[in-house]
Design goal:
With 396 residues, the protein is α/β, with parallel strands linked by helices. The protein is built from 13 helices and twelve strands. The chain has a domain at 7-15 and 260-394: Aspartate Aminotransferase, domain 1 (Alpha-Beta Complex), CATH 3.90.1150. A seven-stranded mixed β-sheet has the order 2-8-7-6-5-3-4, sandwiched between helices. Helix 6 links the parallel strand 5 and strand 6.
Length: 396
Amino acid sequence: MKAQRFVYADHSATTQMRPEVLQGMMPWMQAGYGNASSIYSIGRRSREGVEKARSTVAKAIGAGSNEVYFTSCGTESDNWAIKGVAEGYRDKGKHIITSAVEHHAVLHTCQHLEKMGYTVTYLPVDAEGTVLLEALERSLRPDTILVSIMMANNEVGTINPISRIGAMLRRRGILFHVDAVQAVGSIAIDVKGMNIDLLSISAHKFYGPKGVGALYIRQGVKLPPFMDGGAQEHGYRAGTENVAGIVGMAEAIKLAVQELPEYTAKCQNLRERLITRVLREIPNVKLNGSRRNRLCGHTNFSFQGVDGEELLLCLDLAGVAASTGSACTTGEAAPSHVLTAMGLSPEEAYSSLRLTLGRENTREDVDYIVEQLKTHVERLRQLPPGYRHKMARLGL
């Protein structure tokens, strides 16, 4: 019996760890198991591994080694940056600005701060999902202490004008946090040149291990410790270091920076093939997000008259892994907050599908995705609504 083809097209949710990364981690899981806080030789070797990794991550984003702090994930990094500024700079003000299309790691953190007495402005975006600079400038106040804007949107892939925002805020002395979880590995990042004060990243988005991330904190920005209980991470984040994960993250980001031109060119070609074929060969489809100013492998479509989750189930049974939006929100009853903020109707939002391509994908993968979409979109559109979900689950 012929094995079913499998195409992974959900790289914005997570990526497969590279063999080179796993190989680099293995010694630290076995012989190099020492606690990096211990003073004997095996512990000192672990400390050397952590500090070498810190230097590698810092270099990849244009930072100094003393400005990079390791965390467990991008969500933790977002929380630390936003809550840390709120606590550390509350004497200067209690106003924070973010956008309506941020990841929930940012939005929920800001909502939590609102309950603590802070004021949060949620900026609108245009029809492509780009933050409106005019709206940002109008929202700035004397008591604004932080602006948090994502570098690239995780649902539609639109890239924000981070350098322009950074320059605007630096002139005014307002701290700037950037959630770059989706951007690292797809966009060249220079925190100094972009005037970024805090930047969040997560290893599993660029072919590294899950369970490890980092927060860049510009020298001179004073945040309180995120976790108490130990002197790790220069006293800012207590807890035994995940040495193997940290080393793996460093290897992954080093490879991502080295291969960035080739990687982005390949993914852009595949992305354009996918977009062109879908828009040409399937009627009543809308591409969500910017046509050009988007992450290299990122697409998001709305298929009129089709429920996105039903289509997702059909694709899964055909061996295609995709998403209806953020992996952290898939399965929620509400339509995507990103798509509705961009002006899409709830029906258009519910009909959306995210397909994100990566380093292992091929032209044959793209063509297979398109053929499956053509088959299942047409079939689902022909079914009475009451039968669609059941039929999708059965793969019929």
